[in-house]
Amino acid sequence: MEMKEDKNVVINIYGGTQQILPNATQAVQHFYGADISRDVFREGALSRQELSPEAKRLSAYINNVEELGVYLTRLSGCITASELALVVVSMVENRTGVSKELMVRESFIRLLLPLTPGITSGRSIDNIRARINDAWARRPKKVS
Could you tell me the superkingdom of the organism this chain comes from (predicted)? Predict the structure, then answer.
């Protein structure tokens, strides 16, 4: 009886997505880096939470799951457009993924409206944009 020796072949390819599987019975893929583990953790945490479709869309801008919960709570507690503006300004200042340009876009403001059921008057896009601009102008400047 003839004995076959197993030979290991290691192929290192950097960048891109390639698979070289000659007669393979299994493939193992390893991910290295903090970004990938953070994204996997985030997706798992988001799937465990029961979020509305609007909250899931907001999660595209707020990467941290705990921060997302805090902002959703703060948004649901807003009763005026000025309070909503303060929450939006804090999102920008805390570098959540919301930029100065994004905070006044109609699409972003429309995303926030269903998350703020307590605001009964002054829900127009123009009014909320004006309150956000006012809050941005009044924010305390950080001294470096």
Answer: Bacteria
